[in-house]
Specification:
By secondary structure, the chain is an alpha+beta fold. The protein is 30% helix and 25% strand. The longest helix is centred in the first third of the chain and has 19 residues.
Length: 296
């Protein structure tokens, strides 16, 4: 790739965040860009808990019945349950009703408050969900509300990235969930800055990345929005958790899980899964995986 290569850039508000995609100018790039943005709309329509017409909310209305699911929704739920199992329930996608009760229930486009019409059931967990991979069905044993926010945006980034792979050099940034393909316009690996969790407009660190995802979960955008499902209370031991992984759904989910687990156990999780990451505590103490490499 030659230095100074032109790129097409486009930004839209989707999935309650600003999504910006850059791709190297080439024949067919505009159409691929449209398909890439289309995945954000599709996955939002499948996985949003803020839209009563979404596939996810239709599933929630049918507890006690094995419901056929689209490939997108099944993949998001299946990955969430695996992550819940891996973290011993510290991460748990069935916490949606608790999120609603704490005020995280406003639809970003209309401002409408969403109230799921089911009774609160104590001690609901990921173990109340049964998947049948052969039939691709999802069964909810008890009334519950999924919150797939920790994985759905990452999945959308990954699907968008698939549309752009043929162009080699591209960048997708969905409100802190980033996938960077190939090189930047100067022919170098992309540089990703990690926001300081307490100082506005200040970068705490930076990494060089190519053909990888970088996702951060932090307490600076919306305080108390990440809950420890083991206690039902906000996770407070971490200010930000950043994960570098081969795909964005993995990085997105692991960043949230590490945030909940706390610095020591969070790093243990990242080492066990085989990804790199940086965790910063509220007093700015840093924990990182052994192979983390920074930008020069």
């Amino acid at each position: 790739m030659t230095a100074g290569l032109s790129m097409i850039t486009r930004t839209e508000i989707l999935m309650d965040t600003m999504v910006t995609i850059q791709v190297a100018c080439s024949s067919g790039a505009e159409n691929a860009l449209e398909r890439a943005f289309g995945w954000f709309r599709e996955i939002e329509a499948r996985c949003s808990r803020f839209d009563q017409q979404s596939e996810l909310m239709q599933l929630i209305a049918c507890f006690g019945v094995a419901v056929p699911a689209s490939a997108i929704l099944f993949e998001a739920v299946q990955f969430s349950l695996r992550l819940a199992e891996e973290t011993g329930g510290a991460f748990d996608p069935t916490i949606g009703l608790n999120m609603e009760e704490r005020g995280f229930n406003r639809e970003y486009r209309t401002g409408k408050l969403i109230r799921t019409p089911i009774a609160h059931v104590a001690a609901v967990s990921y173990r109340d969900v049964q998947l049948d991979a052969n039939r691709r069905t999802i069964l909810l044993r008890r009334p519950l509300v999924f919150d797939l926010g920790a994985v759905a945006k990452g999945l959308a980034v990954d699907m968008a990235a698939r549309e752009l792979q043929a162009f080699g050099n591209f960048a997708i940034d969905a409100g802190g969930d980033v996938y960077l393909g190939g090189c930047n316009p100067q022919g170098e690996p992309w540089s990703v800055g990690i926001r300081h969790p307490r100082l506005v407009g200040v970068w705490m660190d930076a990494f060089r990345v190519s053909d990888q995802a970088v996702c951060t979960s932090g307490d600076y955008a919306r305080r108390h929005h990440i809950l420890d499902t083991r206690t039902g209370e906000p996770a407070g031991a971490v200010a930000s958790a950043t994960v570098i992984a081969p795909n964005a759904m993995l990085a997105d989910g692991l960043a949230t899980a590490a945030f909940v687990l706390g610095p020591a156990h969070g790093i243990e999780l990242l080492d066990r899964v085989g990804v790199e990451g940086l965790i910063v505590t509220p007093d700015l103490k840093r924990y990182e995986t052994r192979g983390l490499r920074r930008a020069a």
